[in-house]
Amino acid sequence: MKKIFLQIGATRDGQNPYCEVAQREGYFTVLAEMGDFIDYQSIGLNLPFDMVLRINRPESPYEVMQAWMNAGLLEHPQVVLAGFEAYNQSAGRVREMLADPLDRQCFIPLDKYAQRMALKKALPSFPQPEFRFFASALSIKDARNALIYPCVIKPVDGGGGLGVWLVKTPQELDKAVMSLVSTMNYGGRCFSGFIVECCLEGQEYSLQGVVCEGRPYALTCCQKLIERIGEGDGPIGFYESGHVGVAAHDLPPAFTRLMHFCCKIFDYRQGAFHIDFIVVNGVPHFLEMGFRLSGMGVVNLVKEVTGLNWAEIAFNLEQGKNFGGLPFDTPHHAVGQLRLRQRPQLAAAELWIHQNQRGTIAPPIALPQLIVSHDSALYADLTRHAGILGTLRLEAADPREIMALFNSVTSIHHLPARRDLQCAE
């Protein structure tokens, strides 16, 4: 019987780590993705999959399976994984549909609101920002005078930071809501809801790892660099520009407890994950958990830091193989990467490399800048994942050296408010 791997959604960073592993393992590889996005990404990339299914809504497991049958694929895929976070629930539902009806124990990824509620129900004192749920953007405006400012608005089912705003006053909230009303989710669909949470000031981190038979293993811990976007008295967006990663040998106990608690409460027993949190006064506060590989080239960063192929480990878990954790001889060093979106930042990075004879700048994916309408299926992708001029990469013994350089480069010129760069990532 032919082994088949189905990936729902293309990666947005141009990497295809699952496909590479699957083909090395002898799988026939299939990608299900929006036809418009396939056409757009194919301009600058050669998609390595053996078959591509062009569908309108990758977020619909029923449409994925209908396309599968229409393509004449009579055998079920042995491995089903999402290539992009917006389609993670769809991948979970497809796995559930294909599972043995007498033994269905498939994990369905929780959205941001469901995660927050599960943690609050399990332990009301668990550190996370105070939050409220709203079914629509306009309903947030109705509660403008009852909210505590500053606060952050987040769609519960977005991806890549789409639709995330920091507002400091009711007037800024009104402007953010008007923007959200006209902002479409990936594929041109609507958001299913929003959470509004208290804004916490601190240092943001993320853990990258896997869960094997219910036991979580952290591979790396990344300190994140967040740029703020905005001008004047309007709402502020964020852009997740940089990551400085180290191997997760000696995690602070609080980080380890956070990881174990989240996996236990969400009943996540197998697969890749990343957990985003912010440290306030020494205490990590949960922000969200992704049940997948990270984007933005973090898969490569994990490999550079640990020597381990994160995608291969996660794929092997889906095949029923085990993972024993980080090897003891993993080198202790830091690797950072910073995505550059402005010419002054790129020039500053190039000058630093020339003066210090260290570091590199990787060129961006050669994709064109297109102007599309707000209701286009490509609008979210073009506003969130385009416009990168290069990626600065630096290795050092001390992660603080890398973060100091990244802060220096990004402070050269603040990101202006732009029509085509609307929110956080």
From the helix content, strand content and strand pairing, which structural class follows? alpha+beta
CATH superfamily of the largest domain: ATP-grasp fold, B domain
CATH topology of the largest domain: D-amino Acid Aminotransferase, Chain A, domain 1
Q: What is the average per-residue confidence, as pLDDT, rounded to a whole number?
A: 90
Radius of gyration: 21 Å
Please give the alpha-carbon distance between the first and last residues: 42 Å
Tally of DSSP β-strands: 16
CATH architecture type of the largest domain: 2-Layer Sandwich
Largest sheet: 8 strands, antiparallel
| Alpha plus pi helix count | 13
Task: Give start-end ranges of low-pLDDT stretches.
Answer: 415-425
Strand residue content: 25-35%
The neighbouring-strand order within the major sheet is 13-12-9-10-11-14-16-15
Share of helix, binned = 25-40%
InterPro entries: ATP-dep_AA_Ligase (IPR052032), ATP-grasp (IPR011761), ATP-grasp_PylC-type (IPR003806)
Keywords: ATP-binding, Ligase, Nucleotide-binding
Domain ATP-grasp: 118-319
Protein name: ATP-grasp domain-containing protein
